[in-house]
Amino acid sequence: MLPTGAVQAQIAAVWRLESARIVAALARLLRDLDEAEELAQDALVSALERWPRDGLPDKPAAWLMASAKNAALDRLRHRAMAARHHEALAADDEALGRHVVPDTAELVAAAQADDIGDELLRLVFAACHPLLGADARVALTLKVVCGLGTAEIARAFLQSEATVAQRIVRAKRTLAEAGVPFEVPRGDDRAPRLASVLEVVYLVFNEGYAASQGAAWTRGELMAEALRLARQLVAIAPGEPEVLGLAALLELQASRTAARLDAQGGPVLLDQQDRRRWDRLLIRRGLALRRAAAEAAQRRGLPEGRYALQAAIAAEHARAPRADATDWRAIAERYAELAAAWPSPVVQLNRAVALSRVPGAHPAEALALVAQVAADPRMAGYPWLPSVQGDLLERLGRRAEARAAFERAAALAGNEHDRQLMRRRVAALAGA
Fold first, then answer.
1. For the whole model, what pTM was predicted?
2. How far is CA 198 from CA 66, 164, 220, 228, 302, in A?
């Protein structure tokens, strides 16, 4: 039998991978998010109590799912018995509110009308309820459905953990007080939620691509899940330009995965990657989706959106056989379009980097733009802001200032690999 510590580590690993699916399955049964979370946590507690004593089951994920589903079915049976004993209440759907138990015919009809075809994606759509504001929808879904921590969500929103935590609590309270059933929208009811669903998938991928916390530079399971959801969205909404744009972006970004880590598992930055290791199949898929997104927007007379424009930037990198063959002028132009379509200090920071790489450009011009970005209070805790400043200052020969900037970046970084990258820059400048 494994030591208790090893069993607990196994449980933590399984829970990290499976908790979202378990919550999704329970929410679909119960139509109530709080209950789904509660029973999923009960299954986890049961595993923590029993597995160190009885040993790991052959299929830990299946054990957790079965335990949680059995508890949910028990709750539904008890609810149905209570409903039968209180016929007056059972006849009044409004009185029962979210606690109404659907009959078999209703469940069958819902299943036949549901073309989403993926348990987790169903739950993402259900959590992105139009009763909530856009930021609240996304924060709630990232926390409950996708399993991201509050710190990770706060980084994505460029906000404090306390602000994000309060937003999630308020979102849950709003849905509960409104008696909103936690159920999957169908047909035209999905349209108001699509933008939030796309943002959820985008942010999950970003956290996987560049983990904000911990010892791992990437989180492959999050990247894979986001890519799978994006492909599923293309299957159910093949004519939506931004769905195609998001899928194109994720395919192109994921194509670099093998080249982003060295033999020791350390990070390799974009301009240092061996592009022969980029996945050509994913690049072909991404470029095809990028073209499809542009054509779909043109057919509908729409400007290209934030995901399609980011895919266009990723496509420029994908087409360049070497880092020094990158068309930085085209990338800078795309960032200018993106900044107009999606005002964001992070976009402006990336635009400054692109402008600094254009042949003939002077780093001082980009540094002035970065100074404007730095005035935005949302960027106060963003580690890549002082990192960019440090790089530009070093290119200007202002080594002491560059070293101080990289020291600030290292202090802000939540990921160990990011800190090491910054510290190496500090050490290089100290030894110069």
1. 0.81
2. 30, 19, 19, 13, 18
